[in-house]
Amino acid sequence: METGEVSVFLGPRHLVTVRHGKGVDLAAVRAHAEERAAVLGTGAAAMYAVYDGLVDQYAAVASALEEDVTEIEKSVFSPQRTQDSERIYVLKRELLEMRRAVIPLKDPLLQLVSPEQTALPEQAKPYFRDVADPVARVADSIDSMDRLLDSALDAHLARIQVQQNEDMRKSPPSRRCSSHRP
After folding, report:
1. How confident is the model at residue 78 (pLDDT cuts 50, 70, 90)?
2. Judging by beta carbons within 10 Å of its beta carbon (0-12, 13-18, 19+), is residue 57 exposed, middle or buried?
3. What pLDDT score was predicted for residue 148?
4. Distance CA 82, CA 147 (A)
5. Which of 17, 155, 9 is nearest to 73 (CA)?
6. Could you tell me if 128 and 78 are in contact, meaning their C-beta atoms sit under 8 angstroms apart?
7. How far apart are CA 15 and CA 32, in angstroms?
8. Is 109 strand, coil or helix?
């Protein structure tokens, strides 16, 4: 997973984006914005397009991460001995990176659609609500996956301990040297 940062500056008739690292394909975003400019207004349409592009990527990444979590769960609870600790740790790091990308977007989007907010035209708010809802779902999904990975790690470590105990019981007793004292 690669993340970047997109800063958005909205004016009455313009939108400026500054991108650091990997980010949304801004050419596609521009076309998306131009389709909605008549309904949303120029700046709001562009901002919506940026947010919508970001959220689409978040949802796709979250779906891929869910598949990885499911694979790890199957592996941890399979009858074979597995080495899942490292995979779980790597996936938890990816979830942390995803959380850092998603969570900062959640509150600003909710503020944009609040009834008290007047910077956006009223006709634009339903569009932004359609972006805010998936962000909230992705944020909840990240939290759920993190809890599942914690449980999977606990189960994996418990299985290792049980396997080690079984191995100790199966191994032949070691010969002890007894020392004779004169």
Report:
1. confident
2. middle
3. 93
4. 20
5. 155
6. no
7. 14
8. helix
